[in-house]
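Lab meeting minutes (informal)
Scribe: AK
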Amino acid sequence: MKGYRIAYPAARTAKLEPFDLPENCPSGSVLLKTEYTLISPGTEKAMLLAMPNTCNGAGFPRYPGYSATGKILAIGDGVTDLKAGDRVVAYHSPHASISIKEQRHVVRIEDAALDSKTAVFAIIAAMGLQGVRKLKVELGESVMVMGLGLLGLFATQCARLSGAMPVIAVDFSEARRALALKLGADHAFSPDHDAKNLAATIKSLTGGGVNAVAEITGAPNAVKQAFACMAPMGRISLTGCSRTSTPDVDFYNDVHKPGITIIGAHNFVRPSENSFPGYWTLRDDLKMLLRFFAADRLHAAPLISDIVAPQNAPEVYQRLATGDTNPPGILFDWRNF
């Protein structure tokens, strides 16, 4: 069986290429015909540029992507809760027209009215969500989200849904700050706000500092700036993947003395079977997010900047490589393959 996928044959190079799949669907798996896949800009740019902490240091070729929606064409032996024709969200799913996925990596889209272009955001929304969930935000606490790519914009929405007030969004991009305000942030600032004295502004707004920070950028300077903005006994979740080390942290004055809790919030730090407070399985988070999308409590449509044909992948990834900072939601439409 032949399909098409997006590949990075070398650094800074992307192409659409054919590939072969087995004719028979393996036991415990499903054959998926893709509708849409979503680019994860930060991760896929890092893979494309061969930045540190990507692909476990493996070389090229690389196959980007991890978010897809599609319809099941066939099921393998032992698959009991899915059937051909079901529309699903698939995670750990690269940009490809067709794929074979383990049953545990797909979640049925229960609401027939939920658009697949919205549902495909559930995987990346889960990453922003868990950065907030692990903070265990209490009603009325202040939350700051640093970095307003896709993860940060969903973290902003989830912080508001969790009862945070105020919700403060931080990013260099004016367009992204405006979008964060539209999606529920109470305030939005550039990191260099007020002659680089963001901390004073934040402490004035919150009466002494934010209670919790979801740090999405992974940038060393952002982590250090977050410490300066925090209230005593605050928490910070390190949600974005760092590509370099963070030098010169004054742990005594920034962490130890004010009692700051640092939480490693990589998306893979989850239970595999049973959810419990602060730590849900990915499947449970995805089911919840799909319900919230269907109920119009979470919003993905404002994040879509482009829907493109996979044949245009080289141009799309060239934009990523050169640092395009337009609104971040780029979807590939695979329905004609």
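Next up, CB showed the second protein from the same session:
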Amino acid sequence: MSLDDYRFLESFKRKRIRLTTKGGTFVGVVQRINLNKTIILDDVAEVQSGCRFVGAKLFFGQEILNVEFTSSTNKDGLGNEDHDKVGQLSLAEFQPYRNTLLSGGDDDDDDDDDDDEKEQFVNYVVVDEFHEKFGPAIMHIRKQKLIGLGLDGVGAFQSERLCWLQMAVKNKVYLFDILLLGARAFRNGLSSILESTDILKVMHDCRRISGCLMAQFGVNLLNVFDTQVADVMQFYAETGGFLPTRVSTLQEVISFHLKMPLSSLSSLSIKDQLCMENKEVWYVRPCPAPLLRVMALSVIHLQPLRLMLLDALMSDYTSLVDSYLKTGQENPVRTEDIGKTGLELPQELREIELIKFKRQKWAVDHYNLTEDGLLDRFSIKATSDPDLEIQEQPEMLDSSMVAGKTYPNPAVMSTIGGGRKGRELADMMERRKVDILCVQETRWKGSKARSIGAGFKLFYYGVDSKRNGVGVVLKEEFVRNVLEVKRVSDRVMSLKLEIEGVMLNVVSGYAPQVGCELEEKERFWSELDEVMESIPTGERVVIGADFNGHVGEGNTSDEEVMGKFEVKERNLEGQMVVDFAKRMDMAVVNTYFQKREEHRVTYKSGGR
């Protein structure tokens, strides 16, 4: 018998268990468990009659039908009520980001049964026997290109005794009871999955998992994406080369990157606390349903988390590629100096050093720096704005009257989150002394607030990286004045600020284009109406929107809401703008000012 086996058997001593045999059901305290499959109980009572036995009682293994801890039984003797071997987790409750993040489907999942995007639940299944469950589970997992992986056990690091192994596919989590299945489970399929280079395993802190698998079962874990490592790399890039003082827990990474409040991840915290207080809970059989649920929850976020981390890690690259594209489109005819090879490092790539320098300055200004040169990412300087970190928070943006297209370029925000486009926008605002700017068609997915450089911060919202999206940029001296942020949809959002005692509501809107369905246009105006109606009387409102309509030049009939300086004839979309202005007693501001001919239409395409 190995030392681990001895410790395992010893851990049951003085535990009260419920033991079912062919002759009846008994409750007693474990005195000893022998290798010959006999159990000696003390303080024994027969459940049905209540009769107590004097002294110790010996039970033989061949007579025992079931063993469970009394903590999982009730007074009526029904010990299996908590042992739900199949369960469901609601997507709406536990993966609220899923419809947005995976709206285009998951190319990494070849699952036919679980690929229905309309599925409202993630199912979890306990695999604790070979006859019916194990084979189908292994076959299903082998079809995947990507799985989430987790484990739970008793002990520390490589000496940990593995009790449960969790594998998550798109809409299902398999909970393998390794304590019951044993090494045979690895010989019959688990090892081939874990060592496969064709299946990517996503996990948080692979050191513990790989060490445990190698030490106990000789499994060489391959093809791994570690969310803890990716989170540190993202922080390193975001701060211009600084490392954090510590790594993040799984719930911290989920909260930060998937924008889930920590209150929604309390089950993961409870799991950590439970393991610290009583790790032997993983030995309990049958396993209580709440514990099964917690194990499933610990792996369902891993696949979406990988997508978000990859996007974050690739943001600098995509920003530089966008710069390349812009250069090629704006300067189709390239000129070269005599003696140049054309392979010199271009200006677009030289900006990498500038980006790094600015990020380092921002990081030092906002995080506490230790003597070791590390940043305490969980301790923001008291003099800095706590909202500069991207966190889930109440949002604020309400309605106001728009002066037309605030920023015309459809791709201007494609990489605004700290990329070159964001810096260009910040530089423009600084140059033109603009304190508050509404932007539309940002095409930036997420619900965040972040610095874009030059002392400006962007609040934005989008659900698709290919269309729509709105945002508001504030000079950072006004960020502390923000009282509320409302992200209504990817076409309407608002901010409420208090400036010198005056309540100001800033609304950013992006109306559907001329070719869109009437239903979509009506939905936009309905959302905008709701925002306006939610603003208390007496508060000021400014709307900065791209209404995608022409209110018409030479106005003579709607002087109360607009001037006469516009372009083209009024269309249906323009009439909707005028009707809204009348309804809300507002004015289309940019029609009151005469502009140069080249400034009257801001949209450009292909140099025209």
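CB comment: Confidence is low (pLDDT under 50) at residues 72-83, 102-118, 383-418, 603-608.
No objections, moving on.
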